Amino acid sequence: MNNRAELRKLIVYGREGCHLCEDMIASLGDLQKEFRFEFVVINIDKDENLTRLYNERVPVLFAVKEKKELCHYFLDLEAFNAYLA
Q1: CA–CA separation, 12 vs 60, rounded Å?
Q2: What is the 3-state secondary structure of 36-71?
Q3: How many CB atoms neighbour CB 20 within 10 A?
């Protein structure tokens, strides 16, 4: 199996101009120096359904394979570490 397939995939649902979103994205970038995972950032304002789902709770960190929300507003390191374990 190639290593790329083993990477954990996360989504940060956020919006432009959101300082909490920027903080979570920066923290995840720093954590990539230690842990193997990848993440994408999706702007909820470009999708009506996502805006309805997450509007006031951004940023939301979502685990793709497990289809579950790990945390919102702030990066929960305990939940993040449990996810990677």
Answers
A1: 6
A2: CEEEEEEEHHHCHHHHHHHHHHCCEEEECCCCEEEE
A3: 16
What are the C-alpha distances in Å from 37 to residues 7, 16, 30, 57, 74?
A: 5, 23, 11, 23, 18
- Residue 73: Cβ within 10 Å count: 15
Task: Report whether pLDDT(4) > 60.
Answer: no
CA distance 42 to 20: 14
pLDDT above 90: residue 7? no
Structure tokens at 74: 């702030």
pTM listed for this prediction: 0.90
Q: Domains in the chain and their CATH numbers? A: 3-84 (3.40.30.10)
Under 8 Å between Cβ of 66 and 19: no
